[in-house]
Amino acid sequence: MAKPRPCVVPCCQGEKFELVHKFPLVRERAELWKAILNIPALAQLEVDVIRNRYFVCSRHFRDSDYKNKLSRSLNMTSNPSLNLTSLSDAEGLSRVVPPMLRAYPNFEQQQPQQQQKDETSLLSLSIELQAESTPEPGFIKNEYTVNSQQASNEIDTGNHQSVGIVSADQQSTHRHKRPMQNKTLAGCTPAKIFKFKRKLPLSPVVGKESAAQIHHPHSDPVVLRKIKVASPQKKIAAESITELHTKFTISTETQTDLEEPIPVETEPLTLPAENLGEVKQTTKVLALLECTPENLQKLQRKIKECSDGALPFDDKLFSDVNDEQATDSAMKPTAADEQHFLTLQAPETDQPVRMSYIWLRDHCRCKECYNHETFQRSLSIFDIPNDVSPASYEIRDGKLNVLWKDGHASSYELDFIFNSQFEVYKEILQQEHNRPIVWDRKLISAFPEYSRVTLNQLLCEDEIVKRVVDSLVMFGVAFIEKVPANQQSTEIAVRRIFPIHKTLFGEMWTFSDSMDHSDTAYTRKYLGPHTDNTYFNDASGLQVLHCIQFNGTGGETMLIDGFKAAEQLKQKEPEVFERLCQYPVTSEYIEDGKHHTYCAPVIKRNILTGEVEQLRFNTYDRAVLKTIPQLQIPQFYADYKRLGTEIQDESIVWTFQLTPGTVMIFDNWRVLHGRQAYTGKRVMTGCYVSRTDFQSVARTHGVIS
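The structure corresponding to this sequence follows.
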């Protein structure tokens, strides 16, 4: 049972709960929690102090904040949003807290066995680990076996946990003598315990006697086998395998009959000394192994391949020789690979880092190979031979110094090398993809953490520029207020942060219902949620809108977090989400002298992390649908409408009136926008910012890597 802890939210009045959550380890997210909770007692405390002292209970999180309904763990981007001022939202109050799943030391609490259509049978293998030399006096001498009742409880298709080890004399305790010297006795530790299952019936593969006794699914035996293992190499003698059918005792229990203790033969099985050498010390353990005909055949083939007549006792005991060779070829460098890689030791870890010689040569940053004024390579990759290798190398003062065979000398900072690894970069990208805060109408309305700055602040303080960019990365939206209601002032506000992207509409554009272009936006009609430029190869990254004149009714602006809609769809119907990441959908824009078209999936995922990166959703710009076979058309329409249902869900649609004087900037790859129908006169001005310029500014301000 988890230790109850008090909740820091005032409306919980210090009540203790079983399920509480620490403040996030990422400082930015911890600060966000602190801001969302808005508790005066925490205002002056550092987040590191808050993280170790205060907790937030589960009643302040939504069900969708958790990984699944039975999970006690929050998603990486979850934030408290329920019952922060009063206990009024039933979603958090009525949550059933899932129990903590723990492996208890005693096994009195048995899990009910699930009924299966096919029974399975297990092979029990009792193995004696032996020291190759006589142990010194005073060392531990243990005798182990497996509690058979525990084994019967644990051998369940839905519960593959480790089996505990208890005394051979008493099933619930173990006895030993404490060592008198601080040394380790080779071979006295228990062998690994394997648990597998197999389908019945078995075919005879190991001998006539075994074949005679394996005859029916309901009487298929659990075989108790004892093998001496030479330690520390832990190898199984070949003779002990080939004569399994003559040296082991057999019972008639199957998996469904494991309520009774498994009989264990307590006398050790002695093997010839020429196979194992002189043995003085033994340790008995019981392992549950999958004994299928295929596995025993693999075992026999491995015995024939062994030059010393002994097998290593490890996780690959039942793997085939060909399987091992395939695995080794994938995991271990071949002789040719060793000629192309340099192995380094990563700092503060035991993991080796293998660096390609050609990568090192290509990333030399000396003045001869790299132009530090233009930040471009001077050395052509076509001048580097594929089999390039160093004549010598050394590591000194945090640098790797390499002398190549052609006489060129290179020097690399070790931090540069280790930080350039794919795994490190992918982890950084994953963290950046987890930074954006997905929001719905309630969250964005109740906790406006998105940036709202004035034009005067923006023009006078560089820190305000970073705040706006950070808001666009985190929430996908930002506002600049107290801007004179004209196109020139709007342009000044935008150019203070970003360069303007020129499109077929120009740089800065002003429109109303005069139909200057062939676009539904140039009307007074209802404009549903959509993203712009789906017909461009690279849709604009940001869009800027400023209502500079409005005399009428209606025209409320709608914003929807597309990441939230995609997340909800993925949780509810993952197969629909996956298909929308694959459908090739074509959009187009046509007017006199212009015809833009592009084909891409509705949902785009990052090529490295797999996280949602862009939505291309615009029902108005869709071209003739000829990129999907007709047999798949009905499914596509159903899936597309399913995403539209999530996008138009009232709980995530943020509606407000955009008034003159307020410039709105939003992420066109993430945030969908629309407006209600209106009457009267409404004039808008705005522009686009390219995706690459948006990310460039974000990098230069340290918002993204």
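The mean pLDDT is 74.
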